[in-house]
Automatic annotation (TrEMBL):
EC number per UniProt: 2.5.1.-
Alphabetized Pfam families for the sequence: Cob_adeno_trans
The protein's enzyme class: transferase
SUPFAM superfamilies given in the database record: Cobalamin adenosyltransferase-like (SSF89028)
Region Disordered, residue ranges: 1-37
Family of the protein in this entry: Belongs to the Cob(I)alamin adenosyltransferase family.
The entry's keywords: ATP-binding, Cobalamin biosynthesis, Nucleotide-binding, Transferase
Protein name: Cobalamin adenosyltransferase
Originating organism: Paracidovorax wautersii
Record GO terms (molecular function): corrinoid adenosyltransferase activity
């Protein structure tokens, strides 16, 4: 593994390349830096979500997710290296089961809206989906373990569920899409 950064402005990337954890250099426009960047952006958005008032269990879960995303980014930065552990995916599955159990069935599609925390969770969800697409593309171009792709897929599901949970913290609800089909049928959610 490469040494930790002791200096940020190295100027080595001025030529359009970036260093990977195995000391190789690749174009900043190649698949690996794209995937790493999307995971980094997701982690930053989760950091922003953590600035909101959150239930303690959600806060603790998201802090751990940030650490797992750092592991995932580290794995992406070192070709052939495994850093994300199986228990990280298990934690997401358990959280999905726990929080899904508290929610009513969806009546219709919901909008990425509601409370500020819920809306930010939806932003995190969409960035997780983008990161997942970047990891899928990387895996199609070069060997990559399944764990990063599976983790991001499950995390985006969890972020959707957490957005619904966060909309209910103070007695709120999901913000439903006003479906023309339901309106014609007289079944518009209230």
């Amino acid at each position: 593994m490469a040494n930790r950064l002791s200096q940020i402005a190295t100027r080595t990337g001025d030529d359009g390349t970036t260093g990977l954890g195995d000391n190789s250099r690749v174009s900043k426009d190649s698949g690996r830096p794209h995937a790493m960047g999307d995971v980094d952006e997701l982690n930053s958005h989760i950091g922003l979500l953590l600035c909101e008032p959150l239930p303690q269990g959600v806060r603790e879960l998201l802090v751990d997710v940030q650490h797992q995303l750092f592991n995932l980014g580290g794995e992406l930065s070192i070709p052939g290296f495994a850093l994300l552990k199986d228990d990280a995916l298990l934690q997401l599955d358990e959280a999905l089961a726990l929080y899904n159990a508290t929610l009513p069935r969806l009546q219709e599609f919901i909008l990425p809206a509601g409370t500020r925390a819920a809306a930010q969770a939806h932003v995190c969800r969409t960035v997780a989906r983008r990161a997942e697409r970047a990891v899928v593309a990387l895996g199609a171009a070069e060997p990559l373990r399944d764990a990063p792709r599976r983790y991001l897929n499950r995390l985006s599901d969890l972020l959707f569920v957490l957005a619904r949970v966060l909309n209910r913290v103070d007695g709120g609800d999901d913000v439903y899409w006003k479906s023309e089909r339901l309106a014609r049928q007289g079944g518009e959610p209230t």
